[in-house]
Amino acid sequence: MVVIVQLVYLVLTTLWLGSMVYSLVVVQPRVARFFRDDEQREEFLVVLANGNRWPVVALVVGLLLSGGGVAIAGSGAVSVGFTLAVGLDLVAAGIFVDVSWRHWPARIFALPEEIPGFRRRLTVRAATMTVLIGVSYVVALTVSLR
Question: Mind telling me which residue stretches traverse the membrane in this protein (predicted)?
Answer without folding.
Answer: 6-27, 54-74, 80-101, 122-145
